[in-house]
Amino acid sequence: MSREPQNEGDIARSQSLEIAALRSSLQDLRTELDRREKALGRLTTTVDRHSGEISGLNDRIENKLDVDQLKLELTRLSREVSHLHGKVKQLDGETNHLSSVTIRDARSQNRTVTAYTRSENTPLSSSQSGTLCKVVVAGLSLACIVFSLWAVTIGWNNTIFDNHGFRQSQTAITTYYLRYGEFFSYETPILGPPWSIPFELPIYQSIVAATSKLLHLPLDQAGRLISVTFFYSTFFPLFVVLRIRGASSMAALVTLDLFAMSPFYLFWSRTFMIESTALFFAVSYLAFVAYATTHNRVIGIDGWMLAVGITLSGTLAALTKATTFASFLIAAMLLISHKLWNDWKAANLKASAIGLLVTSAFLVPVISSYCWTIHTDTVKGLNPMGSFLTSHMLERWNFGTLDQRLSLHSYTNFAFMGIGHVIDNLVGSRFVILLALALLMGLGLRSLRMFIVCVALYISAIAIFFNLHMIHSYYAYANGIFLIAAIGLCISAAFKAGVVRRWAAVCVLGVAICTCVVRYFHEYYQLQETNAPGRPLAAAVIDRETKPTDSILVYGLDWSSEFPYQARRRAIMAWKPPGEPALQHAIANLGISHISALIVCDNERSLSPTLLTNMRATGFSVRREFTADNCDIYLP
Questions:
Q1: What number is the average pLDDT over the span 377-392?
Q2: pLDDT, tens digit, for every residue of 31-45?
Q3: How do residues 327-374 score in pLDDT, each as one tens digit?
Q4: How far is CA 341 from CA 130, 338, 348, 443, in A?
Q5: Contact 393/383 with Cβ under 8 angstroms?
Q6: What are phi and psi of 595, to 5 degrees?
Q7: How far is the C-alpha of 267 from the C-alpha of 158, rounded, in Å?
Q8: H or E stretch including 571?
Q9: What is the mean pLDDT of residues 306-321?
Q10: How much is the average pLDDT of 452-474?
Q11: Cα–Cα dist 135/173, whole Å
C-alpha cells in the first residue's frame, strides 16, 4: 500500500530531471543559433563591401583605366563573392535546421509538461465537443418525436367541432357523401340541390373515405389518421430541401425538431382538414425543384423524371389548396431564377432546360389550377345559393383590401388573437426568433440571406391572401413552416462555427423546445382534451325520426356543415333571410314535399312562428315538435 505513492514520486522526479535537461539543451541550441546569425551578418557585410568594390571597378573599366589589371581583379573578386554566397547558403541551411530543432524540442517539452500537469481536469477537444453536441441534439430529437406523437393523439376520439368546426365539418361531409356522387363534381350537400359546390380537388377526402372503408374506422378517426400521416410524411421532403440547400444532417434535424414540436402544427395536424395534405405536396414540389436546380439535372432522362415529379407534386399541391401552393411557387421561382442567372453568367444557358423547368414548375400547375377554378365556378353557378361562392364573388374575401393591410387594427386583431400571438403558437415564443437571429452575428451574409428569404416567404402568403389569414387562424399552416425553417437555419449555421457558438445553438434549441411545450399546454392541450359535443340531442332526433336519404331545412346556423354532418343528412342551410329569392329557389328545387324536418336554432328561434306560417303556406304541415340543444325541430 505504501509503494504506490513512492513510485509516483520517483516518476515525478525523473520527469522533472528530463524537463531540466531538455531546457538546458534548448538554451544551448538558442546560443549556437545566435552565434551563427552574427556570423551570417558579418558575411553579409563583407559581400556588400565587395559588391561596392566591383561596382567601382566597373566604373573604372568604363573609363578604360588599367583595363587588364582590373579584369584580373574583377575575376578574383567575383570568385570570392561566389564563395561567400555559398557560405551564406550553408549558414541559412544550418539556421533553418537549428530553428526546426528548437521548435520541435519546444513542442516536445510542452507536450511533456502538459502530459505531466494534466491529470484530472482535461478540456474537451473540438472534435469531442462536436460529438457530444451531436449526442445532445439526437437526444432532444428523440424527445421531440415522442412528445409530438403523444400530443397528436390527445382527444383522438373526440368530435371534430373543437376549433373551426365550420371548416372541419365541411371537409367531413364532403368525404361522407363522396361515395354517392362524382369525383370532380362531388357533393357538399348544405345549400340545396344540385348539391355540388366544389372548392378543392377531393384528394384528401378520397383517401380518407378509402381508409375508413378498408380499415373499418369511424370517419372522424380516419380523417385524423390521414392528416397526421401527411404531417409526418412532410418531414422527408423538408429534410431533402434543407440538405440540398447546404444544411448538414444534424442541422436539418434541428428544423425537423422545431416542426415536430410546433404547438400550432401539433394541433392542426390532427384535425379533419386538407392542410397537411396540401403542405406535403407543396414541400415535395419544392424538394424536386431544389434537386433539379442544384444538381443540374434538367436535361436527359434524369431531367424528364424530375420534370414528372415536379409537375405531379406541383399540380396536386395547387389543386389540393391553391392558397398553400402560392408561397412554394414563389420559392420555386426564386430557385429557378437563381439557377438560370448562374447558367447565363457561365455561358451554359440552354433553352431546353429553361423550357422544361418553366413548364413543369410553373405552367402546368398554374394552368391546372386555373382550369379547376373555371370548373368549380361553373358547377357552383348551377346552385341558386352557390353563386356567392364563385372565385369572382370571393375575390375580396380571399385577397382583402389595401385598407386592411395598412390598418394597425388588422395586425393587433390578426386571426382574432394578434400577429404576435400567431407567431407564438407557431414557434413557442416570438423571442426565440431574436435568439436565433443573434446566433448569426458574425457568421457571414449567406446565412442572413437565407433567414431573410424564409421570413419573406412566410410574409408572402399573408401579403397575398391577407383577409383569409386575418380571419382564419389555421391558414398559417401554409406558411408557418417557413418561419420554423428560418429559426432552424440560424441554429444550423451556428453549428458550423466554433465550440462556444455551437453550444449556444444547442441552448437556443433547448429554449425553443421548452417554449413550444409550454405554449402547447397553455394554448391547445385543454382544447384537444375537451370534447366539443356539437348538437348531439338534436342530431339524434333527426336520425331517429327521418331517413338517411331525407333532406332538412335549417335556420340560425349560417351555412355551417356541422349540424348536417352530425345528423348525416343533406340540408338547405338557410343563411339568407326568409323569403330571399335564392333561398326560395333552393327550396323550390328540392320540393317542399322532400323536406323532412324544419330546424330553427339559437337566435332565429324567435322567428319560429313566422317561419312556420310561411312553410304551412307552401304546403309543409307540422305534426310533431321537439326541442333539443337550443333548437326547435318541426316534423311533418
A1: 93
A2: 776 777 677 667 666
A3: 999 999 999 998 888 888 887 777 667 788 889 999 999 999 999 999
A4: 37, 5, 10, 25
A5: no
A6: -90, 115
A7: 13
A8: strand 570-574
A9: 96
A10: 96
A11: 47
Lookup: cell for 242 = 434543407
In 3D space, the residue among 351, 361, 350 whose CA is nearest the CA of residue 288 turns out to be 361
Query: How far apart, in Å, do the first and last CA atoms of the chain sit?
Result: 104
What does the alpha-carbon distance between residue 59 and residue 612 come to, in Å, rounded to a whole number?
Answer: 132
Confidence at 507, pLDDT banded by 50, 70, 90: very high
What DSSP string describes 299-345?
A: SHHHHHHHHHHHHHHHHHHHHH-HHHHHHHHHHHHHHHHHHHHHHHH
CA distance 269 to 233: 11
Three cell numbers, residue 635: 316534423
Range 170-181 burial, b when 16+ CB lie within 10 A, else e: bbbbbbbbbeeb
pLDDT of residue 112: 45
Structural contact between residues 635 and 625, judged by C-beta atoms closer than 8 angstroms: yes
CA 13 to chain centre: 62
Dihedral sign for Cα atoms in the order 13, 18, 24, 26: negative
What's the residue count for the chain? 636
Contact 314, 361 (CB under 8 A): yes
> In sequence order, what are the beta bridge partners of 628?
631
Identify the pLDDT of residue 387.
Answer: 87
Mean pLDDT across 8-23: 67
Residue bearing cell 338517411: 548
Q: What is the distance of C-alpha 17 from the center of its chain? A: 62
For cell 377526402, what's the residue?
205
Q: Residue 55: is its pLDDT beyond 50? A: yes
Amino acid at site 577: P
List alpha helices for 118-248, DSSP H. 126-151, 165-177, 203-215, 219-233, 235-244
- In a 13 Å sphere around the CA of 214, the CA atoms on its Cβ side amount to 6
Q: Where is 585: in which H helix or E strand?
A: helix 581-590
- Pairing mode, strands 631-635 and 570-574: unpaired
Q: How far apart are CA 312 and CA 314, in angstroms?
A: 6
* Tens-digit pLDDT profile for residues 61-110: 544 445 555 556 666 666 665 665 666 566 566 555 555 554 455 455 44
Nearest to 516 by CA among 259, 333, 316: 259
3-state secondary structure at position 14: helix
Does residue 200 surpass a pLDDT of 60? Answer: yes
φ/ψ (deg, to 5) at 555 = -110, 145
**What is the pTM assigned to this prediction?**
0.79
- CA nearest to 188, candidates 178, 179, 196, 199: 196
Contacts of 582 (CB under 8 A, 6+ apart): 384, 385, 387, 576
